Amino acid sequence: MMLCRHYCVSGKVQGVFYRASAHDRAVQLGITGWVKNMLDGRVEAVACGSEQQLAEFENWLRQGPPLAVVDKLEINYQVDNPGSAGFEIRYR
User: Fold this and answer.
1) Which structural domain range is residue 61 located in?
2) Of residues 5, 25, 37, 42, which has the active-site annotation?
């Protein structure tokens, strides 16, 4: 069953390769969706996959790449599928 979730990640998550690393991890896991920087300094993502894929992605989001410091991960569990074929980095 395909599930979709919306994430907002707070902390030191811009300028530390968070988006690129999230993209790479999502592709490794076979997740579809997107990731982008927000104007307020957070990173936003929508990801679609199985419960197991999303659980692994969420565990990664809580830590991020080595230079990131994640303070908070907000998750919205009721999200429509954006219809992405792959996982993309969005530039606003």
Assistant:
1) 3-90
2) 37
Q: How confident is the model at residue 28 (pLDDT cuts 50, 70, 90)?
A: very high
pTM for the model stands at 0.94
Which of these, 52, 83, 64, lies nearest to 25 by C-alpha position?
64
User: Residue 13: which CATH number?
Assistant: 3.30.70.100
Question: Is residue 19 among the annotated active site residues?
Answer: yes
pLDDT at 1 over 80: no
Q: Active-site residue 59, yes or no?
A: no
Rounded Cα distance, 19 and 59, in Å = 15
Report how many domains make up the chain: 1
Query: Residue 39's pLDDT is what?
Result: 96
Residue in 5, 19, 25, 42 annotated catalytic: 19
- Only one residue has tokens 């599928």, namely 81
